[in-house]
Design brief:
Number of domains: 1
Family: Belongs to the short-chain dehydrogenases/reductases (SDR) family.
Largest sheet: 8 strands, mixed
Radius of gyration: 19 Å
Strand content: 5-15%
Distance between the termini: 54 Å
CATH superfamily: NAD(P)-binding Rossmann-like Domain
Keywords: Oxidoreductase
Pfam families: adh_short (PF00106)
Shape: globular
InterPro entries: NAD(P)-bd_dom_sf, SDR_fam
CATH topology: Rossmann fold
Protein name: Retinol dehydrogenase 13
Helix content: 40-55%
Oligomer: single chain
Number of helices: 12
Strand order of the largest sheet: 3-2-1-4-5-8-9-10
Length: 343
């Protein structure tokens, strides 16, 4: 009997990351709950893809902590239902559903414009939405669906909201990445899979590598310049970090084929009971990056759950990160005025 390739990859990556750690604690693989008790009363948080999974549980937890939560989702019916549920369970009436389709540059621009006009400030931007190993497809603007939604959509959204984030500083940007970035590679000659045979796994890994490269490049650009007079960095006050939340049971993996056979449902169940955690626990690392006092001033880092780690070697390539930024600007149509204004 042969394991499904995605099962082998999932188990292999996770065990490789954990093989030098003790598993005596029940929090070993899950990371446990966010240790910070910080509240965010009066702060505004935008979360993409917040109607289900990690995004929804992140919205719920931050609503409990007093935040004004804006849930940006493609499916407004599901988003409205999720927002209503969260308002009811947290008794926080400041939880709102807003239309955002990350597969449409037009929708992203409209969403960003709404935030800029209607919100007094923006304290935390959580780029959570994503698609994983889905069939070949294109966004409304012709990009590979995984590269378009997972990277380009959030790249444009973040750039359009940078002025608002700077005005609200200290503020934070959190990009949901994945351990999958370690086998990703940027193919600048064919980012959208138009010349080579489509490989959904590699398309996903490329998009997740792009998340980490984007995080590092944005942090570098936001850091500012060295001010000799004050002997300090004159930064923007905006930090940006990437996080792999762990292996979480969400709708994101619906295209992977996991648990669709009797073998994977029975023989692999013991593995998954150890490795896979609930969306509620999956949200905890994101909440930690969003609210923890320990994260003040920390930027350009990659976190595996709540532990800062060095990402894969290809994610540390500054030339590749710079090239990705330049290509992404062109692809999403950030004009010269927008480029100069935001950074």
């Amino acid at each position: 009997m042969v394991l499904h390739p995605s099962c082998c990859t999932l188990i292999g990556w996770t065990l490789q990351e954990r093989n030098d750690e003790s598993i005596s604690s029940p929090n070993h693989l899950t990371g446990g709950r966010c240790p910070s008790k910080a509240t965010i009363n009066g702060k505004t948080v935008v979360i993409t893809g917040a109607n289900t999974g990690i995004g929804k549980e992140t919205a719920r937890e931050l609503a409990k902590r007093g935040g004004r939560i804006i849930m940006g989702c493609r499916d407004m019916e599901k988003c409205e239902a999720a927002a209503k549920e969260i308002r009811g369970t947290t008794l926080n009436r400041h939880v709102f559903a807003c239309q955002l389709d990350l597969a449409s540059l037009k929708s992203i621009r409209e969403f960003a414009e709404k935030i800029k006009k209607e919100e007094q400030h923006l304290d935390v931007l959580i780029n959570n939405a994503g698609v994983m190993r889905c069939p070949a497809g294109k966004t409304k603007d012709g990009f590979d669906i995984q590269f378009g939604v997972n990277h380009l959509g959030h790249f444009l959204l973040t750039n359009l909201l940078l002025d608002k984030l700077k005005e609200s500083a200290p503020s934070r940007v959190i990009n949901l990445a994945s351990l999958a970035h370690i086998v990703g590679k940027m193919d600048f000659e064919d980012l959208n899979w138009e010349k080579k045979k489509f490989d959904t796994k590699q398309a996903y890994c490329q998009s997740k590598l792009a998340n980490v490269l984007f995080t590092r490049e944005l942090a570098k650009r936001l850091q500012g310049k060295w001010t000799g007079l004050l002997n300090m960095w004159a930064g923007s006050g905006v930090t940006v970090n990437a996080v792999h939340p762990g292996v979480v049971a969400t709708e994101l993996g619906r295209h992977t084929g996991l648990h669709q056979s009797q073998f994977s449902s029975t023989v692999l169940s013991p593995f998954f009971s150890l490795l896979v955690k609930s969306p509620e626990l999956g949200a905890q690392p994101v909440v930690y990056l969003a609210v923890s006092e320990d994260m003040e001033g920390v930027t350009g880092k990659y976190f595996d759950v709540r532990t800062e780690k060095e990402p894969a070697r290809q994610a540390l390539d500054e030339a590749v990160a710079h090239r990705l930024w330049e290509v992404s600007q062109r692809l999403v149509g950030l004009d010269q005025e927008e480029k100069a204004h935001h950074l």
